[in-house]
Amino acid sequence: KRGSYLRRFVKLLVLLIQSGWLGVAPSPTDEGALRAGHGEHGEPGHQEPHKDSYSTFASEFLESRYLSDDGYPFPTAPPVDPFAKIKVIDCGVTKGCIRYGKPGCDAETCDYFLSYRRIGTDVEYEMSSDTDGWVAVGFSSDKKMGGDDVMGCVHDDNGRVRIHHFYNVGQWAKEIKRNPARDEEGVFDNNRVTCRFKRPLYVPREETLVDLHLSWYYLFAWGPAIQGSITRHDIDNPPVSDHMISIYKYEDIFMPSTAYQTFNSPLCLLLIVALTFYLLMGTP
């Protein structure tokens, strides 16, 4: 219905322009053509008036801009997808991945997901977490928080996801103005914060920035945000990679979340074996 109204309006506007009702002034070429069509004393001549007037141009522009060959408005272009989905099929092949959550989870279902790959002199990171606030990765030399270079993706009150640079001072993350991230993009969808950005492999030596060509323990964290500012992470002991990660080695690492670690602990397995033995042997 809206397209029908637009079509009628454009056609009416074209007719008004062509008829001169909108007061479109003739161009200099129009005036020259009219003078050429008369004799020296104003008598009518035989030359055709010049066709390229402003009114003709305006009407033709409107018709070509808003109407198709059939006289219908051109369809609106479909919206462009602002964020390409993370491909987990490439994990361990063309990029490294770290998953934290339930077995078999991916970038859309893990509690936390991270991927990395080299692109020229940059490293591209992809992060996603089941949160409406922020998701981050820290580069540490000792598996502990404090003195760490951190990259975080923060969901603000306007619905945007921005990449920030932090430096851990003890348990507190201080935002650093110098942000090495570029080609950044992010989205908040299905109650998940997901982002992608690049960062240079080599940087000038500085306390708050590390060289990514070196290996580091990776710290993983996520949590709520208030007005675009991060607050304390969701869990007391955020997961940490059990070994140093090298961006030159594409691994596909799975780390079970706390809910799936119970039956993997040595103590729990020992108790299960003891209970099974007790039930098989019976009581004395």
Summarize the structure.
This protein has four helices and 13 strands. It is of the alpha+beta class. Strands 8-9-3-2-1-13 form a six-stranded mixed beta sheet, with no helix packed on it. It has a five-stranded antiparallel beta sheet with strand order 7-6-5-4-10, with no helix packed on it. It has a two-stranded antiparallel sheet with strand order 11-12.
> Per DSSP, what share of the residues sits in E-state strands of 2 or more residues?
25-35%
> Share of helix among residues?
10-25%
Largest sheet: 6 strands, mixed
Low-confidence regions: 26-43, 45-52
What is the strand tally?
Answer: 13
Number of helices: 4
- Mean pLDDT over all positions: 78
SSE pattern: HHHEEEEEEEEEEEEEH
Structure explained in plain terms:
With 284 residues, the chain is α+β, with helices and mostly antiparallel strands. It has four helices and 13 strands. The chain has helices at 2-19, 28-36, 54-66, 266-281, and strands spanning 96-101, 112-119, 122-129, 134-140, 149-155, 161-169, 172-175, 182-189, 192-200, 217-223, 225-226, 229-230, 252-256. A six-stranded mixed β-sheet has the order 8-9-3-2-1-13, with no helix packed on it. β6 and β7 form a beta hairpin. α1 runs antiparallel to α3. The longest helix is centred in the N-terminal third of the chain and has 18 residues, at 2-19. It is extended and about 105 Å long. The relative contact order is 0.13. Mean pLDDT is 78; it is low at 26-43 and 45-52.
